[in-house]
Amino acid sequence: MPHEKKKYIRFINSDYKTLFHLPDGGRVRITYPDGRQADRVCRFIDEYHTDVGGYHYHICEFAERMEQAGARYAPLDYIQDMGFYRKHFFAASEADSGPVYYIIDETDTHGFAFAPRGAEEGKKYCVFEMALNNYRPCPGKVVMWVRTLQDIHPQDWGLDPAKIKAVTQRTKTASRKPKRHKPER
User: Fold this and answer.
1) How many DSSP H helices and E strands does the chain contain?
2) 70, 116, 148, 180: which one has the fewest Cβ atoms less than 10 Å from its Cβ?
């Protein structure tokens, strides 16, 4: 059986700016102007089409309909696969290349990255400035290194704390190794 590529659903605004991605089968919360909320399961159709709550949309059509209705939409589920996220090497000093950091969230001005392993003490998480390289946004200099998420306050940088926590923190049951049972004699 051939290896099947993982499917991620891209949500955009009507100007085609990417807002977030969902895993196939992930949920989106739609909030209407009157405060009503609707949670919908989303299915991947192809790179430009998705099924939201049983209705098929082109990704821009969904964005336009939400804007016309005055509705906002946000993810309830986040992509856990680290292979989805861009990699970058943030070095603590010029002489060091540093470990692999995964860029989990970005705004126009700042970004958040973390190194699941190999980071120096106190440098597991970082907030960095966004820079331009050939007119494309890319990671710039690190403005804050921290050891724990409690030290970073992502919302102060315009970043999504729910996404950062969901992607970087393993639940206790997920991080435990399964118990090995001894064979009965």
Assistant:
1) 3, 12
2) 180
